[in-house]
Structures are given as C-alpha cells and as structure tokens.
Amino acid sequence: MNQNLFLQIKYNKLLPIFLLFCSIFVLYVSLLVGISLNTITAIILLIVSLLMLLNPIVEITPSEIRMKNIIGKTVKTHLYTPDSIAFKNNNVYVDGKKILNTWWMDTDVNKIRAFVESNI
Fold it and tell me: Measured between alpha carbons, how far is 96 from 22 in angstroms, rounded to an integer?
C-alpha cells in the first residue's frame, strides 16, 4: 500500500492567470499615464495573483483537512475518519457538513477520494 503524507490542492489556474494578466495590463497603462492609485491596486492584484498560483488552498492528511488562506496560514482544521467523510456532487462533506467545493480548485472529488481511501 502506497501511503502519501498529505495532498495539497491549489486554486484552479484560470482565475490567478487571468488576474495576473489584468494586473500587468493595469500596471502597464498606469505607468504610461503616470503613477496613480491604479498603480498601487495593480501591484496588490499582482501579488494576490502570484500567491494564488503558488500557495495551496487545502492540505489533506490521513486524519484532517486543513483550510488555508492566501498567504499559506492554516485557517481551519477539520478532523475526519474514513466513516465520517462523504463525497457528493463535487463536494466533500465531513459529518454531514459541507467543507469543500471543488469547482474552484485544481482537483476533482475522485482524486480526493482516492487519497482518502489509499490511507485507510
């Protein structure tokens, strides 16, 4: 049996790449016109898009699911057992409470299910 230590799930790449291109465009235009408030917002948007590309949003271990914020700190931890976790309609439920919706993540429910079942 191949046991992995944890599964990292990142944001879906489409949104951060779109934000990255938008920030570069706004930064370019604001530097052409002159430094203004748009320059600062473009820099902030550039930093946010890079953090979304690099940092995971969820880490799943054999006993817990860790929700992380955009800078990588753990915000919430959900403990689970193989009996308490359920997968329905691209959602992950622990003890009947929906904790993950995979449409904005770079994974699907089958990958999470395979990880959980391989670590039983």
Answer: 39
Burial 1-10 (b: 16+ CB within 10 A, else e): eeeeeebebb
CA distances from 113 to 26, 59, 60, 108 (A): 41, 14, 11, 9
Which tens digits make up the pLDDT trace of 10-30? Answer: 999 999 999 999 999 999 999
Write the DSSP symbol of residue 65.
E
pTM: 0.82
Question: How is residue 103 written in tokens?
Answer: 């449409």
57 burial via Cβ count (<10 Å: 0-12, 13-18, 19+): buried
- C-alpha–C-alpha distance, residues 81 and 93, integer Å: 11
